[in-house]
Every structure is written in structure tokens, then in C-alpha cells.
């Protein structure tokens, strides 16, 4: 197996994994703000600023944005070795920022911060893997 093949398979796997994760996460959140979110964050300052609706839908919009960026990335065949990967890299960078936002929320309610840190770390490894296999600079 050539290094170009390995690079392409790694980038495609990362693209599809994150596409599935954020696609399902974002699409499943479309609708009204769920009771569990209101119950969890209703007692925090997020209830007044910026408000629970805006807080919730900011997560939904970011997840859907990441999903769309990854769909575009796959359709543009950015996963192929040697192809520039602006949509894939943007999706992964935005994912890191989303995990920072989610960590903040978990800290407010004394939630499962280590789990979010693992997601953040996995995303960082994925981002650095693409750079390693492509020898790309950001």
C-alpha cells in the first residue's frame, strides 16, 4: 500500500466519521429546545444571557455547519492525497471550538467534562493526522 493510499484512506475515514457524528447530532436536535436542556441549564446564567434558546440553537447551527462542510469536502474529493482540504480542515477547526463551547456548558452544570475533553483530543489527533499524512501546513 502506498503512502498516498494511506493518506487518502485516513482523510476519508476522518471525513466520514465526523460527517456521521455531526450529521446525526445536528439533525436530531432540530425542533424545540428539549426539556433536559432547559432542566440542566435553566439555573445557570445562560438562562438569562444569551438565553436557553439561543444557547441551544448555537450548538445545533454549529453542528450542522460542520456537517455541511464535511459533505462539501467529500463531494470535492478533498480526501484524496495531494488535494487541498480547506473544507475538511475548517470543519475540524470549528469542531475544536464547538468542544470548547460544550466544555464550558458542562462546567456550568458540573457535567461530564472528561468526555468532552476526549472528543476534543480525538479531533485534534484527526487534524494533526491529516497534516502528518499530507505533510501539509495549515
Would you summarize the structure shown here?
With 138 residues, this protein is mostly helical. Helices cover 74% and strands 0% of the residues.
Textual characterization of the structure:
The chain has 138 residues and is an all-alpha fold. The chain has one domain (3-134). It is built from five helices and no strands. Helix 1 packs antiparallel against helix 3, helix 1 runs antiparallel to helix 5 (113-134) and helix 4 packs antiparallel against helix 5 (113-134). The two termini are 26 Å apart. The model has no long low-confidence stretch (mean pLDDT 95).
- Segments where pLDDT lies below 50 for 5+ residues? none
Number of helices: 5
Shape: elongated
Q: Which percent range describes the beta-strand content?
A: under 5%
Question: How is the biggest beta sheet arranged?
Answer: none
Helix content: over 70%
Nearest-angstrom radius of gyration? 17 Å
Q: What structural class results from the helix and strand content?
A: mainly alpha
Mean pLDDT: 95
Q: How many beta-strand elements? A: 0
Give the termini distance in whole angstroms: 26 Å
The secondary-structure element order is: HHHHH
Whole-number total of structural domains: 1
What is the chains' assembly state?
Answer: single chain
Amino acid at each position: 500500500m502506498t503512502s498516498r493510499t494511506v493518506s487518502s484512506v485516513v482523510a476519508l475515514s476522518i471525513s466520514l466519521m465526523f460527517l456521521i457524528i455531526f450529521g446525526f447530532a445536528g439533525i436530531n436536535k432540530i425542533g424545540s429546545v428539549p426539556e433536559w436542556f432547559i432542566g440542566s441549564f435553566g439555573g445557570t446564567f445562560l438562562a438569562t444571557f444569551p438565553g436557553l434558546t439561543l444557547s441551544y440553537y448555537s450548538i445545533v447551527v454549529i453542528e450542522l455547519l460542520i456537517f455541511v462542510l464535511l459533505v462539501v469536502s467529500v463531494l470535492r474529493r478533498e480526501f484524496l492525497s495531494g488535494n487541498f482540504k480547506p473544507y475538511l480542515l475548517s470543519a475540524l477547526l470549528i469542531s475544536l471550538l464547538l468542544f470548547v463551547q460544550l466544555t464550558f456548558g458542562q462546567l456550568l452544570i458540573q457535567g461530564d467534562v472528561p468526555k468532552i475533553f476526549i472528543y476534543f483530543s480525538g479531533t485534534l489527533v484527526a487534524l494533526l493526522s491529516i497534516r502528518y499524512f499530507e505533510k501539509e501546513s495549515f
